[in-house]
Amino acid sequence: MDKKTLKEKLEFWKKQESQLVKRFDELMLLRGEAAREGDLKENAGYELRTEEAQVASAQIANARKTIKKLEEELG
Questions:
Q1: How far apart, in whole angstroms, are the C-alpha atoms of residue 50 and residue 52?
Q2: What's the Cα-to-Cα distance from 10 to each of 14, 62, 65, rounded to whole Å?
Q3: Which ranges of 1-75 would DSSP assign to H, the alpha helix?
Q4: In CATH, what number is assigned to the domain containing residue 50?
Q5: Buried-exposed string 22-59: b where 16+ CB fall within 10 A, e elsewhere
Q6: Per UniProt, what is one GO molecular function of this protein (predicted)?
Q7: Which of 38, 41, 63, 71 is the most exposed place for a label (fewest CB within 10 A)?
Q8: Quick check: 28 pLDDT over 90?
Q9: DSSP letter (8 states) at residue 48
Q10: What pLDDT, on the 0 to 100 scale, is given for residue 29?
């Protein structure tokens, strides 16, 4: 892959990672709000936000892995 394409992909993934981190932070705030609503064992909002945050966390890890790989390819 040529350097221009690698740089474009790197830029794309850095933007993706930034958006995912923002989403994760928002989910953590929403999760905190849901936690204040009562018993966590029966709090669907808390459970939902926790699951969404886990997905976002995995997506962030994947984006960072991709960024690292692209940076290594660029040298």
A1: 5
A2: 6, 13, 11
A3: 3-35, 44-74
A4: 1.10.287
A5: ebbeebeebbeebeeeeeeeebeebeebbebbeebeeb
A6: DNA binding
A7: 41
A8: yes
A9: H
A10: 95
